[in-house]
TrEMBL record:
<dbReference type="Pfam" id="PF00512">
    <property type="entry name" value="HisKA"/>
</dbReference>
<dbReference type="InterPro" id="IPR050736">
    <property type="entry name" value="Sensor_HK_Regulatory"/>
</dbReference>
<dbReference type="InterPro" id="IPR005467">
    <property type="entry name" value="His_kinase_dom"/>
</dbReference>
<feature type="coiled-coil region">
    <location>
        <begin position="158"/>
        <end position="188"/>
    </location>
</feature>
<keyword id="KW-0418">Kinase</keyword>
<dbReference type="Pfam" id="PF01590">
    <property type="entry name" value="GAF"/>
</dbReference>
<feature type="domain" description="Histidine kinase">
    <location>
        <begin position="188"/>
        <end position="402"/>
    </location>
</feature>
<dbReference type="InterPro" id="IPR003661">
    <property type="entry name" value="HisK_dim/P_dom"/>
</dbReference>
<keyword id="KW-0597">Phosphoprotein</keyword>
<protein>
    <recommendedName>
        <fullName>histidine kinase</fullName>
        <ecNumber>2.7.13.3</ecNumber>
    </recommendedName>
</protein>
<keyword id="KW-0175">Coiled coil</keyword>
<dbReference type="InterPro" id="IPR003594">
    <property type="entry name" value="HATPase_dom"/>
</dbReference>
<dbReference type="Pfam" id="PF02518">
    <property type="entry name" value="HATPase_c"/>
</dbReference>
<dbReference type="InterPro" id="IPR029016">
    <property type="entry name" value="GAF-like_dom_sf"/>
</dbReference>
<keyword id="KW-0902">Two-component regulatory system</keyword>
<dbReference type="InterPro" id="IPR004358">
    <property type="entry name" value="Sig_transdc_His_kin-like_C"/>
</dbReference>
<keyword id="KW-0808">Transferase</keyword>
Amino acid sequence: MIAPEKHKREAERLALLESYGILDTPLEEDYDNLVTLASEICGTPISVVTLLDKDRQWFKAYHGIDVRETEKEYSFCGHTINASDSIFVIEDARIDERFHDNPMVQGDPHVIFYAGVPLKGAGGLPLGTLCVIDTKPRALTKSQVNALKILSDQIMNLLDLRKKKMELEKANEQLARTNHELDNFAAIAAHDLKSPLNNILTLSNCLYEDYAPLVDDEGKQIIEFIRSSSETLRKLITGLLDYSKSGQYNSNDKTRISLTDLHKNISELFGGHKECVIRINSELDSIYANKVAVEQILINLIANAIKYNDKSKIEIDLDVGESESHYEFSVRDNGPGINEEDQEKIFKIFEIVSPKDRFGEKGTGIGLATVKKVVEGLGGQVAVSSKVGEGATFSFTIKAASHMSPSMA
């Protein structure tokens, strides 16, 4: 018997095999079906998907035998990955000096006929083989050889697809960790900045109220600049805190929300704007959702509808409906509308498309990004529909409770 030699690029080959994370995984139907098909096409009682580790050959799938691995030194597949041909065939192992006294020939599974096709990964490095085995001498036809090569390509497709899926899952996990760390950083940084900023605001207000008469006009402008800059920074920090917390809403934390109460609470919240009328339109009496999250979404959207409205009388209509799987909301205003080229930008954090609101203040570009984050966290989507001069409609959905309809809540 002649044991197979190590592959000329064995270290690289083993590293590539390890990168697939396939060794010692459970049996899978897709691979099992392919080896069964290989035996049917070639008319052999045994077929195997073999992966060659450092000291063993391990079977990802097998037909006609009932073992998961054998020693590499006795493997036919160890010779196959070193062969220059695209298929390695032994018609009668009993008369081949490399195999005639091999334990796998003389004992179970009595390998007499063998045909193996390498499973090649990146750079042509062989990971293992697809092989068919018989307990008697035989030969394969040209069509059987071609079919075996096609099946080996399908096995590599499965392996590559599995590897890409594994890499994508790993990348998603890393992205999730990074996003979590960024959210934590934003929350901590914003929280730690609030205290000294409040001191600056308090001191600048005291300075303006108590000492303004003692300074000239330029000094007053400087004090006012400190106050306005601090107030802008306070809004930005508050927005960052809201945004960092927006991903923490639990979509399963649901309670009954009366739409009458919701309308009353929102109207009272914006009651200081006497020029504003907020209407709610729905055939539903209540919904079953995360109350705090829904209120935050609506408060952000209605606050924007008020701040950026250019009419003397502000009209806002809130529509609420439901589909089989989601609640459907829309917030419609009679404002100036939004340019089509800006309608995607407005949901991105720190994107500002209006220089100033109706009160002469500049936005932070955080509110609508927060809305998008909360909505998506509740299993929904948000969009805007608008024409310049005709107002804007912000529509969003949130996943409805599967176990409880609004009428039952």
